[in-house]
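Table S2 (continued). Query chain:
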Amino acid sequence: MLKPKYRDVALLAAALLLCTTAAAKNIYKYQDENGIWHFTDRAPEEDIPFETVYMEREPEPRLKLRQTGAKESPLYYLFNDFWGPVEVELILTDAINVLSEPPLPARYVIPGQKEQVLVGLGPLDPRSGFQYRLKMSSVPGRPVPTPVGNIVALPPIAAGEEYPVSQGFQGGKTHLTPESEYAIDIGMPVGTAIHAARSGTVMDVEEDFNRGGTDLEKYGDKVNQVRILHDDGTMSVYAHLDLASVSVRPGARVRAGQKIARSGNTGFSSGPHLHFVIQQNTGMNLISVPFKFKTVDGSVQAPEELQFLQGTSGNR
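Corresponding output:
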């Protein structure tokens, strides 16, 4: 008779950093006025000299699967640790004598900071054992089948400043996938203030990395970024941010023009810049969508490569 088998679900991220949280942490070492050494994960006051010790650890899942119930009738729950919805597709593979409720494959939309039951399993013939594998893929955001159009945003830089677009829409250098086709890169020094292009809710924050380079395998998943969810279902991503520079917390509501972070050179990057993109989930399919920026004279214009973007004020 077949013995029941239970195998870990394969979490297949369909977007940048979707299924991982901080994979690195930095320890700050400093000596106080009494000569006592301190080691902490919080940077000391600016007037205290300190050393930074970079600590790296394995990525942790942000979508957390939990199994309950008897071995003969397991239930699977999923907790979404993001501050916005995630769409999940669950597929049953290598199944022998398995009954699922609901029938698989199935898709679910899990709200942010919520746990939801996904599926219950059991033997089709109770007199025999059963075996299976579960395969799960995930995409951030609720599904919005039709691409959102006519998006107008503020340039993600401070009013009165200007920086060049080093890679524009459909750039052939690194923006070669649907989720980055309409991304832009803005060249700027490390530490430049980054401002929200549109109002929304902070869905995800990553700020614990301090290295970058052109080795995709080494640095591809080590990027500091902020993902902001908008009321129309789209999401803005600000990537390659500086270490410990994010000034907004997950779940917070931000307004257009509000300072949210500082630029950096973390992750897969050939030099200091901001990667900015507006994305949406069209149904287990993450795409980028074109947008226009508000200009200083009140008009709107799509960003173009080699153009100098000028920061402006106002809400959008």
